[in-house]
Amino acid sequence: MQKQTAWRYNTLYILSWYLLSTILSIYNKTLMGKEHYNLNLPLLMSAVHSGIHSIISRILIKHYNHTIKQYSMFDYITKVIPCGIAAAMDISCANASLVLITLSFYTVIKSSTPVWVLLFSFMFGFEKPTLNLIAVISLIVVGVSLTVDGESHYNTHGFILVLVAAIASGLRWNLTQFLMKSNDKQQQQSPLATMYHLSPIMFITMLSLSLYIEKPFQHHQNASSYLDFVFKALISLSIMAVGGILAFMMTLSELYLIKGTSTVTLSVAGISKEILVITLSVFIYGDILTTKTYLG
User: Fold this and answer.
1) Closest by Cα among 48, 41, 83, 43 to 237
2) Is 14 a domain residue?
């Protein structure tokens, strides 16, 4: 009975993740793509999202009197902060790449995340290397290689950014699993509490990168016109906030799925979602897929 209930909940988390992740991918590409809204501030937008995550998680925890695990200074520095920085790098690089590459190309390269999830899982001892897992990794690597070779609108910087995002994602989810799961059930971290701890670190990391790289509030050659005036800035930040709420619900679904299963399950379940996103990108944005891309 408990297994059936757990299966139903995990199925619900997967479906919620599919829906929210797909909507968020289209939202991000429409907002940041050069040929669309062209909001060339992906790091600032990522920081706004994390700031919203931090605020919402704190409100919910206070409202429901949620118990929060207290980390020692050593554990916070060695476990929580690295996880928050890895998450910030994953999201920031992923959003920045969408300024330069098509959504379909982004999705296929990001689908290499299971490779990095498995490699880091081997390193941390969450999974043991088997022939089946090695075969899966090899197949994904071949598929990604074909896609890169067949991409009609290839951009080196965009490719590097999304590849770094995939690597950071593999590290992020393994560190998150390490934080959330414990042999002592009373010491296990809830998904909401995980967001409570990680969001401020992500916000500080992303905002620091934005202020250093993008300089969103300074006038310079590549400055965004969407923050020129107070009214335009408020509208732009409000649009970013919508994505922040979507991202909060999506991340919560991901964390509950990891808690109920594992990071490997999350990665494998994401493959069919990515096929859906690629299909939608072809219909919505007119992305061109070559024969090699289809094979990939």
Assistant:
1) 48
2) no
If one counts the domains in the chain, the total is: 1
Q: Report how far residue 95's alpha carbon sits from residue 167's, in angstroms, rounded to the nearest whole number.
A: 14
Residue 106 contacts residue 98 (beta carbons within 8 Å)? yes
Domain range spanning residue 187?
A: 43-65+83-295
261 DSSP assignment: S
Give domain status of residue 223, yes or no.
yes
Q: Which one, of 110, 99, 105, 106, lies nearest residue 150 by Cα?
A: 105
The predicted-structure confidence for 142-185, as pLDDT tens digits, reads as follows 777 776 666 667 788 999 999 999 999 999 989 988 888 754 55
Nearest to 243, CA basis, from 37, 63, 13, 62: 37
DSSP letters, 22-54, are: HHHHHHHHHHH-TTTT----HHHHHHHHHHHHH
CA end-to-end distance (rounded Å), the chain: 40
- Asked if the structure places residue 28 within a domain, the reply is no
Q: Do the Cβ atoms of 290 and 153 come closer than 8 Å?
A: no
pTM of the predicted protein model:
0.85
